[in-house]
Amino acid sequence: MGGGGGGRDLGDTSDLEQRAKEILKQGQTGRKNVFISFAQEDENEVNLLRGQAKNQNSDLEFNDFSVKEPYDSQRREYIQQRIRERIRQCSMTVVYLSSNTPQSRWVEWEAEESIRLGKRVIATHSGTAPPADLPDFIRRHGIRIVPWADLAAEVARN
Question: What are the pLDDT digits (tens) for 25-67?
């Protein structure tokens, strides 16, 4: 009488462990963890994007890890530390482009920090074409730009 079980060698399980980590990173629903970088002046438009991602009938699925409320601090290092924590929790960063983006104090830093941390960065816009005045960092890093309508497919591809 004995309960079996023992003795079976599973070999190298590092691939299984890595896949499990990726599944956990995406969350229970299979949604992507996304950091949205945007100029504060574009918050209303970004809230529409956030709402679209929450709509069950939408193909756009992600968990928004971006900062919802501005940090109450004038200390740049503190703000960077808090944003960096959010970016680390994500699988990718989406930069929302508008005519306000080039003047933002934070969008370029957030995109470059995302790249530095090994995160995929894409940019999106709500119009038929990206704003004429693209920030230099978009070109410098070769960040792919997609229309808002194509964002779901880009996020799913990550």
Answer: 544 445 678 888 999 899 888 888 777 766 655 555 565 656 6
Scan for tokens 């996304």, then name that residue: 34
Which residue in the block uniquely carries the two structure tokens 């079976």? 8
79 Ramachandran zone, left/alpha/beta (phi>0; psi -120 to 50): alpha
Cα→Cα distances 155→73, 87, 158, Å = 32, 15, 6
Distances (CA, A) of 148 to 25, 54, 126, 153: 24, 15, 5, 10
Question: In the CATH scheme, what is the code of domain 31-157?
Answer: 3.40.50.450
Give, for 37, the enclosing helix (H) or strand (E).
Answer: strand 32-37
- Choose among 134, 136, 131, 132: nearest CA to 112: 136
The owner of tokens 């995160």 is 119
Residue that is written with structure tokens 């929790």 in the block: 89
* Residue 80 burial by Cβ neighbours in a 10 Å radius (0-12, 13-18, 19+): middle
What's the chain's Rg over C-alpha atoms?
19
Residue spans of the domains in the chain: they are 31-157
Q: What 3-state class would DSSP assign to 67?
A: coil
